[in-house]
Write a structure and sequence with these properties.
Elements lengths: L7 E6 L8 H10 L3 E6 L3 H4 L2 H8 L10 H6 L2 H7 L2 E7 L1 H9 L5 H8 L4 E5 L3 H5 L1 H12 L3 E2 L3 E4 L5 E5 L3 H12 L8 E6 L4 E4 L2 E3 L6 H12 L3 E6 L11 E4 L3 H11 L5 E4 L6 E3 L18 E3 L3 H6 L7 E8 L3 H11 L4 E6 L11 E8 L2 E9 H19 L1
The structure holds cytidine-5'-triphosphate.
Length: 401
């Protein structure tokens, strides 16, 4: 099922240069199955025309409280009752200030005041405006009131400056919105996730790594957080942003990952080992760069400790231990063998031999095995696959109670 099926989103677009990105947000919301109605502020109309939003949403765009024809079709109070979630993207400093004050001086602010639907706000503005104490105080007021803040992101800004204030990536906005619709089935649970590759240093400039991007593990951490869990993410060297609300510990080598995971273990209810841990590491890391000399070079590698097996055998073993298996053949047999051999509760296997899923991809498909069962999670974005996996984790936790 599309993740936002049944959701009726009111997309508020306020007047900043990032208003053009709202069209992409709208597109993604529709792809995710949501119905969307768009309300633009007067200043947003200076940046983008309403026709794009009308075409993408399939409904006329509203921008004024005083539009008689629109009011006759669906009055603003009716619109405020219709929506299941209000998303303002981009939210300017002015819009945030008006929301904080509870003003109702245009259609969008009036709708926010007149609706009981959850409000999600994705700010976008110049970095100095964002950092200004007035804006920060307004944001703090909104957050204290239960408004969900999405971003802003850091990076190059349209004004030529660099810093915090960019609109969060449309994919991440929609992912956060999807997350906000999930029932909090993991509330009160503590989930520990390992993700990414490990880099095993040969000398100061070279290492042995692997192709894991960390995307699956990060998606699992985000899904667990979205379902209400307290999440700790032990991450190998990856270039991914930390999912909102997740505590992250960065590591490089397998030995460091093991130490971090075992140190965190006692307080956790679930461990998901999504990292692609090196099975072998150089027996020693040389202090100086190796100079080329002979035609061949031999590096002695040594087996690393199996973190997952150690977690499963630990005296303070979490109630549920989940492993991952990347297979290219005989998936079920190999995965079930790992399940038994390592003493796991669940194993999520993916067929990395298939194009368009697994390593370095945004998509995946999983077959999850446990002693008495199996669940196939269909091919799709890692965010959705991770949510399906975490629903199964919640099922298994409930079943084990
Ligand atoms: N794992 C681990 N520590 C290691 C190696 C692997 O915790 N040193 C975990 C991974 O996080 C993953 C699972 O074990 O959850 C993968 O199992 P593994 O036996 O390493 O799988 P493959 O490398 O796919 O197995 P094989 O060598 O049998 O192909």
């Amino acid at each position: 099922m599309a993740p936002l099926q049944g959701e009726r989103i009111l997309l508020g677009v306020s007047g900043g240069i990032a208003a053009y990105k709202a069209a992409e947000v709208l597109r993604r919301l529709r792809d995710a199955g949501a119905q969307v109605r768009v309300v633009m502020t007067a200043s947003a109309l200076h940046f983008v025309g309403p026709t794009t939003f009308q075409a993408l949403s399939g409904h006329p765009v509203r921008s004024s409280l005083w539009d008689e024809a629109a009011e006759a079709a669906m009055g603003h109070i009716e619109l405020a009752r219709w929506t299941t979630r209000i998303l303002i993207a981009p939210a300017t400093a002015n819009t945030i200030a008006r929301l904080a004050q509870g003003r109702a001086n245009d259609l969008l602010s009036t709708l926010c005041l007149a609706s009981e639907a959850p409000l999600l706000v994705a700010p976008a503005m110049n970095r100095v405006m964002w950092a200004h104490p007035a804006t920060q105080a307004n944001v703090a007021t909104l957050v204290a009131r239960g408004v969900e803040l999405l971003g802003p992101a850091e990076g190059d800004q349209a004004c030529g400056e660099v810093g915090a204030g960019r609109l969060l990536d449309p994919d991440r906005i929609v992912a956060a919105l999807v997350a906000s619709t999930l029932p909090p089935r993991l509330a009160g649970k503590r989930v520990l996730v390992s993700a990414g590759p490990t880099f095993e240093d040969i000398d100061p400039v070279r290492f042995i790594g692997n192709r894991s991007s960390g995307k699956m593990g990060f998606a699992v951490a985000a899904a667990a957080r979205a379902m209400g869990a307290q999440v700790t993410l032990v991450a190998g060297p990856v270039t991914l942003p930390t999912p909102a609300g997740v505590r992250r510990i960065d590591v490089r080598r397998a030995a460091q990952m093991r130490a971090a995971v075992l140190a965190e273990l006692p307080a956790h209810d679930v461990y998901l080992g999504a990292a692609a841990v090196a099975d072998y590491a150089p027996a020693e890391t040389l202090p100086q760069k190796i100079k080329k000399s002979g035609e061949t070079l031999t590096i002695v590698l040594q087996r690393t400790a199996d973190i997952l097996a150690d977690v499963a055998a630990h005296p303070q073993r979490p109630g549920l231990v989940v492993g991952f298996a990347a297979e290219t053949q005989d998936m079920e047999a190999y995965a079930r063998d790992k399940l038994h051999r390592k003493g796991l509760d669940l194993i999520a296997a993916n067929d990395v031999g298939r194009a368009g899923q697994g390593f370095e991809c945004d998509d995946n498909a999983l077959s999850v095995f446990w002693r008495e069962g199996r669940l196939d999670i269909a091919h799709g974005p890692k965010s959705r696959v991770a949510r399906d996996l975490m629903q199964l984790v919640a099922d298994r936790l409930e079943a084990s109670r």
